[in-house]
């Protein structure tokens, strides 16, 4: 049996609605049992690579694939998809597309039964336990958070027992602690001798995998072309290339590149420590002040939940949120953080009055909200799954139809579309159907279309998922500019780096209750993150050591400035 399980030569992939190549590869071979990490900007062809190997293209998503393609000695273009899934399992970017049934246990049971013809209860328990979701066994899938749904999808893939496993942004919906636990999942797959392809943006969260030799090689994509494949041991020598490709590097790596310093390893924080010491000595630490005179949003004594079951004429309700009290000031960005299943997304849906049972008081711009009608024109919402708010056949129309509501003049509406497309790097895809784009691009379309409505309060659920470094930086700048016009924003996210860089104040939620509130860095260093089982980014401890409260994105600029001053 050959050691090469994937062979790709002179590959050219084009989707049916586009003349431009979605992926071009001169040569790529993947060895049996190896773990390949695929990195690249949003829209660089990473997901297309996974879809071609798994047969999703052309069987499910229409497209043409030219060149030589062999996967486990078969050509996925010509073999029935039912035969391919027994050899290759593909977890898509959106876990919402992976589930069919209403209960967690049914999803896993039917997956096993479809593959093996029978199901053993102990096997169901085994895969739930591997992912740490035994407590979700009897839960309704629609009540799960994105992270919980992601874990269920991975459990189903392990149950299929394929030769090749493709995980497309598996960390996207996982909380920071679960990201740490992802290392154990990779170890498990390597123990099972699976060939593993990990498609990711979140390079920072994969450092431990690389440092523990759990990644064998790294494929770099740019402009829909395979640029090169690196041995994981060579990654430290190619940090500047990763930075050029928009890969999100850890703060110590970015600082080392900016100052021209060589690192001993990816977790070498010496350069950060020296930079912070200089900053502490210089006292150049003025923090941005915001005007927080009035509330855009007030939430008082909020309870929210779902019906569990009926007992005769009585309903049993599971209260997900209990006695929530939060507020958002004008010109303020508020972050909501917490473990998977803590109630973060439910909080946003409760503000929108789309959770079945809501008690408490919600006031927006001084107006009490009692129904969806009261929110019209006041609130914009982008859920974890952007497809839920995308309803038109082109990106232009998606944004334009909303711009017409806030701008009666057609020319002004069209100008707003062009401006938003430029800001969100969507100018080249205005003619495309939103659903044909990558997950990161779809989310940017959804945010741009909601911003076109110019709401007083903007609710964003995991906005950085699927975004590369440039897109995240643009998004951060856009929302900081947006709130300057006396607006407010709530960001629910697992991306603690984004929180520290762009958010003014955070609430920590755990088991449906607010357990802490305040400045992001102060809260992270208070010990509450340890109590709710959330890891603190490494660099935060260094900020605490030198008693510095500064946004990481400002560290590089200030450190570079100080270095230039010392040099002169």
Concise account of the structure shown:
This protein is of the alpha/beta class and 568 residues long. It is 36% helix and 24% strand.
Write structural notes for this entry.
The chain is an alpha/beta fold and 568 residues long. It folds into 2 domains: 4-241, P-loop containing nucleotide triphosphate hydrolases (Rossmann fold), CATH 3.40.50.300; 330-355 and 366-539, P-loop containing nucleotide triphosphate hydrolases (Rossmann fold). It has helices at residues 46-54, 56-59, 81-84, 104-116, 121-130, 146-160, 176-191, 207-211, 239-244, 251-259, 270-282, 344-351, 395-406, 410-423, 439-451, 469-482, 496-502, 520-524, 528-531, 538-545, 552-567; strands at 4-15, 23-31, 35-40, 63-71, 88-91, 164-168, 195-199, 217-222, 225-231, 295-311, 314-329, 332-337, 357-364, 367-368, 379-382, 457-461, 488-492, 505-510, 513-518. The strands form 4 sheets. It has a 6-stranded mixed sheet, with helices on both faces. α4 runs parallel beside α6 (146-160), α5 (121-130) crosses α6 (146-160) and α10 packs parallel to α21 (552-567). The chain is globular, with a radius of gyration of 24 Å. The model has no long low-confidence stretch (mean pLDDT 88).
């Amino acid at each position: 049996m050959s050691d090469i399980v994937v062979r790709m030569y002179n590959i050219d992939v084009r989707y049916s609605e586009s003349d431009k190549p979605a992926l071009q590869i001169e040569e790529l071979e993947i060895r049996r049992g190896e773990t390949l990490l695929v990195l690249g900007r949003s829209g660089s062809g990473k997901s297309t690579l996974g879809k071609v190997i798994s047969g999703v293209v052309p069987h499910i998503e229409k497209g043409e694939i030219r060149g030589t393609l062999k996967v486990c000695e078969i050509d996925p273009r010509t073999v029935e998809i039912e035969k391919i899934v027994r050899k290759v399992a593909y977890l898509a970017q959106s876990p919402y597309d992976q589930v069919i049934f209403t209960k967690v246990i049914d999803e896993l049971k039917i997956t096993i039964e479809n593959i093996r013809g029978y199901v053993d209860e102990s096997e169901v328990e085994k895969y739930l336990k591997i992912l740490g979701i035994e407590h979700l066994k009897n839960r309704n899938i629609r009540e799960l958070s994105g992270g919980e749904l992601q874990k269920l999808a991975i459990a189903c893939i392990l149950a299929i027992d394929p030769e090749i496993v493709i995980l497309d942004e598996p960390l996207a919906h996982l909380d920071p602690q679960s990201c740490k636990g992802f290392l154990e999942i990779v170890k498990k797959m390597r123990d099972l001798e699976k060939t593993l392809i990990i498609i990711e943006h979140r390079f920072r969260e994969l450092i431990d995998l690389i440092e523990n030799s759990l990644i064998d090689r790294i494929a770099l994509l740019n402009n829909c072309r395979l640029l090169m494949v690196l041995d994981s041991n060579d990654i430290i020598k190619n940090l500047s290339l990763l930075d050029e490709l928009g890969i999100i590097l850890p703060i110590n790596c970015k600082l080392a590149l900016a100052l021209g310093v060589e690192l001993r390893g990816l977790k070498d924080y010496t350069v950060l420590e020296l930079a912070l010491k200089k900053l502490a000595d210089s006292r150049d630490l003025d923090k941005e002040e915001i005007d927080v005179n009035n509330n855009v949003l007030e939430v008082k004594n909020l309870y929210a939940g779902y019906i569990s079951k009926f007992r005769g004429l009585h309903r049993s309700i599971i209260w997900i949120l209990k006695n929530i009290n939060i507020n958002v000031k004008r010109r303020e960005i508020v972050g909501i953080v917490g473990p998977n299943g803590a109630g973060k997304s439910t909080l946003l849906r409760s503000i929108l009055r789309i959770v079945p049972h809501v008690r408490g008081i919600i006031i927006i711009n001084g107006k009490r909200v009692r129904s969806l009608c009261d929110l019209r024109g006041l609130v914009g919402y982008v859920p974890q799954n952007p497809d839920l708010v995308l309803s038109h056949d082109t990106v232009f129309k998606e944004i334009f139809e909303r711009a017409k509501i806030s701008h009666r003049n057609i020319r002004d509406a069209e100008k707003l579309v062009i401006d938003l497309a430029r800001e969100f790097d969507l100018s080249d895809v205005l003619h495309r159907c939103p659903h044909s784009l990558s997950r990161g691009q779809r989310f940017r379309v959804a945010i741009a279309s909601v911003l076109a409505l110019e709401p007083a309060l903007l609710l964003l659920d995991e906005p950085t998922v699927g975004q590369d470094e440039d897109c995240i930086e643009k998004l951060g700048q856009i929302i900081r500019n947006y709130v300057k016009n006396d607006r407010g924003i709530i960001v629910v996210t697992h991306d603690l780096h984004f929180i520290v860089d762009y958010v003014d104040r955070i609430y920590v939620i755990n088991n449906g209750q607010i357990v802490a509130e305040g400045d992001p860095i102060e809260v992270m260093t208070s010990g509450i993150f340890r109590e709710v089982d959330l890891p603190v980014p490494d660099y935060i401890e260094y900020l605490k050591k030198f008693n510095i409260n500064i946004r990481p994105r400002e560290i590089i600029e200030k450190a570079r400035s100080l270095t230039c001053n010392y040099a002169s």
